[in-house]
Design a protein that fits this description.
Elements (H helix, E strand, L loop, with lengths): L8 H7 L15 H13 L9 H4 L2 H14 L1 H10 L36 H5 L7 H7 L1
Length: 139
């Protein structure tokens, strides 16, 4: 079970009181099992089908619980509780990542360039001209 995500007892003790407790309809799949499955899916690319049924339960249950909890705002409550949203942080980290790109991807050198129209007549006609005043001002 080392490749699978599972909440520790300490983590689960902080999260469990924040989860909805309504028990209408069929018997619920264990919340700890389902929540661990949702985290597993999100950490591994977001595919519900990749979650092993034996470990986390049916993929349909994982998806439905994820969507229902999102609609009810359960995720915001969990994140706020875990992050300690009431406390003002004394330090904030801002990521300023720089990425090198290939020289073709950077836009390259050069000035303005004119797009050529597919119509020969439009390509031959100049749409605007420089005035004599602008030429005189530059010299």
């Amino acid at each position: 079970m080392s490749d699978f995500f599972w909440f520790s007892d300490e983590q689960w003790a902080r999260i469990e009181p924040l989860l909805p407790t309504d028990t209408r309809g069929m018997a619920r799949v264990d919340d700890r099992r389902v929540l661990s499955g949702i985290i597993h899916a999100l950490k591994n690319g977001g595919r519900w089908a990749d979650c092993p049924r034996e470990v986390y339960g049916p993929k349909k249950t994982l998806y439905n619980r994820f969507v229902r909890w999102a609609e009810r705002g359960v995720w915001e409550d969990i994140f706020a509780a875990l992050a300690g949203a009431e406390d003002v942080p004394d330090k904030v980290f801002i990521d300023s990542t720089c990425i090198k790109v290939h020289r073709c991807a950077g836009g390259g050198k050069g000035g303005l360039w004119r797009m050529v129209s597919a119509s020969p007549k439009a390509a031959a006609t100049q749409s605007s001209t420089l005035s004599a005043m602008r030429k005189a001002a530059r010299s």
